[in-house]
Structures are given as C-alpha cells and as structure tokens.
Amino acid sequence: MKNQLHRIDLEMFEGPLDLLLFLIKRDELNIYDIPIAKITGDFLEYVDLVKELKLHSAGDFVLMAATLMKIKARMLLPIEANGDDEVEDPRTELMNMLLEYKRYKEATSTFSEMERFERPYYYHIPTPWSLQQEDNTAILEDVKLYDIMLTFQYLIKNYEEPATHSVAVEEVTLSEQVGFLNGLLQAKTKLSFAGLLEKFDSRLVVVVTFLAILEMLRNRQVKVIQSKLFDDLLISRGSTFGN
Amino acid sequence: MEINELKQIIEALLMATPEPLTEARFNTCLGDEESKIPLKEVISELTSDYEKSGRAFFIKEVAGGYQIVTNAEFEPYIKGLFSKSGKLRLSQAALETLAIVSYRQPVTRNDIESIRGVSSDSSLRTLLDRKLLEIRGREDGPGRALLYRTSTEFLQYFGLNSVKDLPRLKEVEDILAEDDSELV
Lengths: 243, 184
What we know:
Distance between the termini of chain B: 65 Å
Distance between the termini of chain A: 71 Å
Number of domains of chain A: 2
Order of helices and strands of chain B: HHHEEHHHHEEHH
Largest sheet of chain A: 3 strands, antiparallel
Oligomer: heterodimer
CATH topology of the largest domain in chain B: Arc Repressor Mutant, subunit A
Shape of chain A: elongated
C-alpha cells in the first residue's frame, strides 16, 4: 500500500479534496457511503509525505486529516435512537463538499479546452505608444486599489534600508504621517511617492506612510495618479483636502 | 449613409478600438450622423469581403462587441512577436479558481477557498495579474471582504460573448449519474 502511494505524483493534487476524489476513484469507492476508516488511513499516509516535503499547502491537508479523524470517531460512537429524529450521517458534510468541488473541477476541463481553442487567435491591439500620451505623467484614470498595492510592493522591493545599527525604538504613528503628508501638500500640489521613500530611513516609516496615503485616499483628502503600472504614484490634493 | 461608407467607418473603428466595439459605442462614435443599417449587418458584409479577398484576419464577435482577430493559421509566425510568457497556459489551480468565480460571481476569496478546500491566494494573484479577474467592490457582511468578478479580458481570453455563454455547470445529479454509468 505504502509503495503505491509513493508513486502518486505529489504535484498532481490541487488540495485535500482533490486527493480524496482521487482515492475514491482509484479504489472505486461509493461517494455516498465512504469507508471512512480506510480512506482516513490512506489520506494520513499522504499527509505525512506532504509534511516531510514541507509543501506549501500542508496546512490544508492537515486540517482535512483532522476532519476525517473526527468523522471516524463519531462513526464509532453508538447512535442513540431518540424517537423519530433522524440521525445525520457524520459523513454528509464531507460528501457535499466533495460533490460541490467535483462540479467545478470537471468544469475546468471545458475552460482548458476553450483556452486551447482560442490560443492561435491574436487580437488587433493598439500599440503601447498609441496609448501613451505626450505628458509622461499623464493621468491613468483607472487606478485600482490592486494596482496601488502592486506598485507599493514593487517600489519597496527596491528600497534598501541603510545599514545602521541603532537599537532605539521607532515611534511612528498613522496620524503623524497623515499630518506630515498634509503639511507637504500645503506647500506642494504634487508629491512623488518614490521621492518620499528617499527621505525615510526605515521600512516601518515607509509602510506607515503608505497606510496614511490609503487612509487619506479613503477620506478623499488626496488623489493618487499613476501613468502606468509600477510607475511612481503621484499624490495630489483631493476634494476634502484641508477640511 | 451608404453601406460602403459605413463599411469603411466601421473598419476604421475596428482597427483603432482598444476593446470590443459594441453597438452602443458605435452609435456614440457616429454622433449625430445616423446609420439606418444595424452594425451586425455591416459586420457580416465586411466579413464576406474579407473572406472573398483572402485577408489574414476576420471580425470576431466577443465580449458583447466586435474585434479584429488574426486567422489561426498564422499563429506559428505571430508567436515570434511576443515573449513566451504572454501566452502561458493557466495552471489547474488557476483554472479551478476561475471556474468558481465565473459561475458564482461575485465571490469572496473565502467562498473560493471553501469550495476548493485549499488556499487560493496565489491563483487569485495570477488571475488578477493577467487581468482575467477584477475586484469589484466589497461584500456587505462583516469583514467587508473583496468581491471578485470576471473581466472583459476573461471573455476575450476564452472567446466568449458573455458569461451566459459558458456551458452550464453540471448539476450534482448529472455527475452522480455519470459515475454510475462508469461503474456498469
């Protein structure tokens, strides 16, 4: 049994439900009447492997293993017949999860087919330069929160903390940074986020300042514009600035 | 307006449009001038022109509009224009996530993960990066979780006119019926 399991390609499972469906299919088990003891045994063997390999999804497998053992334990308890109340099979919830997951898993083959079918067609797309306006800091109106997050991640990746060795506790608060940005925007109409980064000497200050920008964005105290993804963020006064 | 003039106008719009040209957008472009012939009709005229003259492209009906697309036979040459990563196929995990979003949208990450039984952060990220999904607002409930939806690019990627054109998701009963027949 053990050898058989080792031969399973670890990468081929998308998660614990996928593995359970595989075990059910392989051993021709009835999804309505899953032999919990057997499947728990097989499943646990696999989870040991996952843990050994420290796979990214190990936690999800361990969680399922716990669920299986809980069901197994409840199956062993004698069922108290109390009147007409129907006793629910402890496996019902798991069965429903498996069936629901199976529907979507089967749909992926259709998506995969459509993807393959559409591959050879190329859209006539406007060239990047035809989209670019003369002013390099032109407003990209449609800046989504996700774009801002990506840009932040991109900018901070290139941000190196100076190699100092002070051990003082840094005190920086959100409201301090909001005040700081407010002050700067009184003097200037536009601030460059990349420019701000240069002024700070710790990652913490950078993060808190970024949070301050998001907070001010939410209150419409500032507007943020970007000419293209990963480009600098330009911060300017919003509709409620100074209120 | 003459049909020939209209054909030229629409051809020009199709060449320049950054997204599928819809009937509504077409009417906006025409402004005060009025077309007595529906867009669909002119498109089918253009299509037969292209066929007759052996053009390397055709007009595709996609995402509720029309767009010019190259013929499939030229793929081997066109590929050379793009980096390989551009048309990498989606992973199984990403396809599962995409299937769940497209049938149940708008959904939260939690909805997706409870169906897949596995954390779906990285597939969501891939799909957002490739613009196949977009974030559309937040749920009203506690936590105000982000809601995910499929995008216009999703329809283009899979060559669909609308999400309604997706094949019907099988009912659980159908799947069980198939399983039974497999066993027989």
